[in-house]
Write a structure and sequence with these properties.
This protein is an alpha+beta fold. Helices cover 36% and strands 29% of the residues. The longest helix is centred in the first third of the chain and has 16 residues, at 5-20. The protein is elongated.
Length: 107
Amino acid sequence: SVYSENTTKTVVENAILHGIEPKKTMTTLLISSQFEGDDVVIIIRDNGVGFDVEKTDITKRIGSSNSMERLKLKYEGSSTTISSNPGKGCTVRIYIKGAKLYENSNS
């Protein structure tokens, strides 16, 4: 596997617990991935309750900072971005640097 599935799993679990369950109405959770050059981007998006990114400890919202740190150690230069608005949902993007090159070298 190119990345730790635990990283994605942690973000999805937190989207459900903190974004979708509190809304109590129909919500959508989308998980997708795409190549951007030699990098892989995993996108987890929901239309749940959202939150104010500037007023929130992000590591508690998107899950264990340990899984994010392990990803950065395994794929130097990898990163995560979070965008959210209260009442509108949240989007987490996990950028895995050089993952496409890594996959090709293991073929």
